[in-house]
Request: fold
Amino acid sequence: MREFDLVIKNGIIVSEEKLSKADVGIKDGKIIEIGIHIKTNQANQIIDADGLYLFPGIIDSHVHFNEPGRSEWEGLETGSRSLAAGGATLFFDMPLNSHPPTTTEQAFHQKDAIATEKSIIDYRLWGGVVPGNIAELEKLAQCGVIGFKAFMSNSGIDDFQSADDRTLLKAMKKIADLHSILAVHAESDTITEFLSEEINSLSDNTALAFSNARPIFSEIEAVQRILAYAEATKCKVHIVHISSSQVLEPILTAKRKGLDISVETCPHYLSLTVDDLEELGAVAKCAPPLRSKQEVDNLWEAIRKEEIDVIGSDHSPSLPSMKNGNLLEAWGGISGCQTTLSVLIEEGYWQRGISLSSLAKITSANPAKRFGLYPNKGSVSIGSDADIAIVNLNEKFTLKKEDLYYKNKISPYIGKTFRGKVKTTISRGEIVYSAF
Reply:
């Protein structure tokens, strides 16, 4: 019997604390040895990673793969292949955009069966909080949802309604009792609807008008409200996709008070601006919207200071036809799960000197810890699942449409050049992507 299924030789392991050159021995999907000069005469397969970096596999805690029901937008097979090509080994699929949405036990089992069949990497499913489904939350928790997701503003999906304040409070009390966590899309529906009506009346279809219709203070108002509800209910909260460091101020204050809060931003808020939205059009439309170059820089500074916990792609794909026409009426979602690590390495490591350890922390170790999966996930260490992204930091590439594994090959990053190429992705010891 072979001692190892796979040995990765001469790689530089990126942990949340340091870089270290070592070999990695893998058996039965687990890392069983890390050291210098692991003997390979009893290995089934060997990868020479000399000069390459071994990141813990990315954990993308925020994707919309839309299956069942809207698989023409994206599917679990194409979505998971896209993630694997970007160095991801685990994703958490959001409850909306699927039809039915994952707001009941029955819907969970329906999606879970499809994901088991089609996904080429590990996954977990979010449950949803909508008006009228409080009684389903305990059943969803028993199914094994990673947490629950609620919208404080219009989700854009008719069968996933935003949660009113009373629904939020009742759900959060229940979620706290279940020792789970609530993820929230925090924008004020009242503010965004009021400002959008005003802009629509002026027929102003510019990128700046769209951004102004969903201002930063709309995020701040909603965040302040959900933090108050967290204090009242003792519910753990994960605030998703903040677009500005200004939104961090009440969150950091709440953390100092002892509230159990975490916060996410996305690669597009760290690389694209409202000027890109004006140039690219609806392919770069999302909610909250893209902000100024200064806001991009400020978010990176917050990452440097470890004020942001997690990076999630918020991959929210659609049919190409949904990105045509009026900017204000087009689908609001960016396809980006395949390029997360490339964006972070280029924008963070190369352009701003953010350490590789910091990138590993916010893309892998932190989400694993926050959602109770560490150290089985989120670490290249003995005993952990063999989830590894092998990266050539110095390799330049320009993203082409045909490089994308998405069902609909739409991305604001097509034509952009990056330094940092994922060469191989290994999920529980199996090679799920290779560019060698």
